[in-house]
Amino acid sequence: MSPRPEVWSNWAGDQRWAPAQVARPTSEAELVRVVGEARERGLTVRATGSRHSFTDIAATDGLMVDTSALRRVVAVDPATRRVTVEAGITLHALGPILAGHDLALENQGDIDTQAVAGALATATHGTGARFRNLSARAVGMRLVTADGDVLDLTEDSDPEALLAARVSLGALGVVSQVTLECSPLFTLERHDLPRPLGETLDRLDEHVDTHDHFELFVWPYTRAAMTRSTMRTANPPRPAPRWKREYDERLVQNGLLSLICRTGRRVPRAVPHLNRVMAAALTQAREQDHAYKVYACRRDVHFTETEYAIPRACAREALERAIELVERRRLPILFPFEMRFAAGDDALLSTAHGRDTCYIAAHQYVGMGYESFFRGFEEIMSSYGGRPHWGKRHYQTEATLRDRFPGWGRFQAVRARLDPDGVFANDYTRRVLGPVAAPVAP
Ligand SMILES: Cc1cc2nc3c(=O)[nH]c(=O)nc-3n(C[C@H](O)[C@H](O)[C@H](O)COP(=O)(O)OP(=O)(O)OC[C@H]3O[C@@H](n4cnc5c(N)ncnc54)[C@H](O)[C@@H]3O)c2cc1C
Predict the structure, then answer these.
(1) Statement: residue 209 has pLDDT above 90
(2) CA of 49 relative to ligand 1 center, distance in Å
(3) String of b and e for 32-44 (b: at least 16 CB within 10 Å)?
(4) 274 CA → ligand 1 middle, Å
(5) pTM, to two decimals
(6) What span, in angstroms and rounded, lies between the C-alpha atoms of 35 and 26?
């Protein structure tokens, strides 16, 4: 453990915390030891993955367990396609390793820098109406609890705790290992196409249902949309030359966006015009490569973000109301709204629990005001029973959230069983989950 407090921050740089101690265990045994020592000293414990959450979900003033050295592949079973990895391995590191075994993650989000356990803990998702969040493929987890026990959670050993641990907000213990059910290695063919917004929304269901993965970006003050339609295929990868990817990602997607954002931050009233420039610069693009190379994008321009999961049937209306909010209040919003889809699942605190889901995300460039916009956006999404992404900014509390998750009481019962003293709590979990309830007598 390091002797003096250090200041840590998230990817966006807008959440900062100074843990009393930091540990970077290299094995499960060491993890058990540091958690036990913290408990003896009366410290709370928080695990961190890659610290890519926009909320203070990973922050702590107690013991911070940096899991980045827990990054080994423990076992690969080709017959069941189940792969066991240590919790801190990043999705980026995992992709080529799985490909080496002719395997792939079923679906991914738009970056791959997250640690596996960090991605699961917040219900990280990609897009695709037939595909569930990443956590749905976690068929086993090893969890270090406050007592120093190592629980081997599987669908047979403790199915209720596994459903809770899949999306845990880090509030049940520290995950040391995860077993993921993978897919056979596949290729993705992606097609980005600028289109008029109205006709895209008129055919929204068709786009969503006829593509394996469909995503929509919409810039306020323009009537322009960019659709990203992706199909899974047995065709071999045909990667674009490296220089072309670099040119597209570094110069066009990130370079132009960065220039526009810096200009918009200096001259907010120019934002509507800048968005129209951005929309006019959108061009068609195609990519065909191994899935793990296509899902993840480069994100050089830093921003903060909020995202809500709403019933799929409300997608169009909710998006149109969000656009109207920005335009009516003349808000300087330089990033597009992002709309994605996922199948319902059963993790107790998954944002897609029990319903086919549309995710709508809103962003703001670093250094620009976001609160009034995010609160207005939240009000709209709440009117559809929206559930906030646990790793993205929101203003909800336990009181406003408990009725939005059908599995809420069941999660709290598992929490009371595994962490009765709140050793794994922080300000965020106290705010959104409330205090640990007294365990129910058997
Ligand atoms: C640029 C960018 C793009 C993003 N794109 C997407 C996207 O496409 N889809 C999406 O859904 N989200 C997306 N996110 C959000 C991101 O996926 C989540 O916030 C995710 O949780 C971050 O993973 P992490 O490893 O950084 O976890 P952290 O932020 O470090 O931690 C998140 C939570 O996981 C817990 N945790 C971490 N490791 C463990 C462990 N070993 N045991 C127990 N608990 C643990 C922490 O305690 C905390 O509660 C994006 C974020 C950024 C910055």
Answers:
(1) yes
(2) 7
(3) bebbeebbeeebb
(4) 31
(5) 0.96
(6) 13
Backbone φ, ψ for residue 282 (5° rounding): -70, 135
d(CA 349, CA 219): 31
Q: What is the pLDDT of residues 337-372, one digit of tens each?
A: 999 999 999 999 999 999 999 999 999 999 999 999
Strand 73-77 to strand 45-48: parallel, antiparallel, or no bridges (unpaired)? unpaired
Dist CA 87 CA 155 (whole Å):
18
Ligand 1: does its nearest atom lie under 6 Å from the Cβ of 387?
no
Ligand 1 pocket: which of 14, 52, 135, 145 to mutate (most atoms within 8 A of CB): 52
Residue 417, classed as helix, strand or coil, is: helix
Q: Which two tokens stand for residue 277?
A: 């420039």
β-strand pairing of 82-86 with 174-181: antiparallel
Contact assessment for residue 338 and residue 124, using Cβ atoms and an 8 Å cutoff? no
Pocket perturbation via mutation, ligand 1, pick of 9, 48, 357 by most ligand atoms within 8 A of CB: 48
| CA gyration radius, the chain | 21
Alpha-carbon gap, residue 87 to 85, rounded angstroms:
6
Backbone CA torsion sign across 128, 132, 137, 142: positive
Condensed to tens digits (0 to 9), the pLDDT of residues 136-171 reads 999 999 999 998 899 999 999 999 999 999 999 999
Residues 6 or more apart whose CB falls under 8 angstroms from that of 78 comprise: 101, 102, 103
Tens digit of pLDDT for each residue in 268-297? 999 999 999 999 988 899 999 999 999 998
Given a cut of 60, is residue 251 above it in pLDDT? yes
CB 349 within 8 Å of CB 390: yes
Ligand 1 centroid from CA 23, angstroms = 19
Nearest atom, ligand 1, residue 50 CA: 26
Residue 206's Cβ-side half-sphere holds a number of Cα atoms within 13 Å equal to 5
Domains and CATH numbers, the chain: 68-184 (3.30.465.10), 187-396 (3.40.462.10)
Res. 441: pLDDT tops 80: no
Question: pLDDT tier at 104 (50, 70, 90 boundaries)?
Answer: very high
Query: Residue 189: beta bridge partners?
Result: 231, 288
Cβ-contact 223, 327 below 8 angstroms: no
Q: What is the whole-number distance in angstroms between the Cα of residue 312 and the centre of ligand 1?
A: 23
Is residue 65 within 8 Å of residue 86, measured between CB atoms?
A: no
Q: How far, in Å, from the CA of 50 to the mean position of ligand 1?
A: 7
User: Which residue reads 């129209």 in tokens?
Assistant: 276
Q: With a 6 A CB cut-off, is 50 part of the ligand 1 pocket?
A: yes
